[in-house]
Design goal:
With about 110 residues, the chain is mainly alpha-helical. It has one domain. It contains four helices and two strands, in the order αββααα. Strands 1-2 form a two-stranded antiparallel sheet. A hairpin with a 2-residue loop joins strand 1 and strand 2. It is globular and about 40 Å long. The N and C termini lie far apart (about 35 Å).
Length: about 110
């Protein structure tokens, strides 16, 4: 019985990679960035879009689009400001393995 299959629907990139967006446009971003259909999504919009694209039960998160963006982003900012308290912070970054390395965009 297969309980969870590892999904590979997302690729990763740095904000300053050469993906066709201006450096000025991207340098102003200090948040999670998700590019979907050539649209830049940030903060709570990025989280909700990622959850929706994961599919399954996560698609139910779309109901939060009914909440005012200002309120959603305020909650996002509160969670983002406390993430290191809750999950800790490492002094070094993990090096991606060979499979993950193929999914990093230039």
């Amino acid at each position: 019985m297969k309980i969870l299959e590892k999904a590979t629907i997302f690729d990763c990139s740095t904000v300053f990679s050469n993906l066709g967006y201006s450096t000025e446009e991207m340098s102003e971003l200090d948040s999670l960035v998700y590019v979907r259909n050539q649209q830049i999504k940030i903060r709570s919009d990025a989280i909700l879009s990622i959850l929706f694209d994961l599919g399954g039960i996560y698609r139910m998160s779309a109901i939060f689009y009914l909440t005012l963006k200002f309120f959603r982003d305020a909650i996002y900012d509160q969670i983002a400001s406390r993430r290191y308290q809750w999950f800790g912070k490492r002094s070094i970054c993990r090096v991606p393995n060979a499979e993950e390395e193929n999914r990093i965009l230039a």
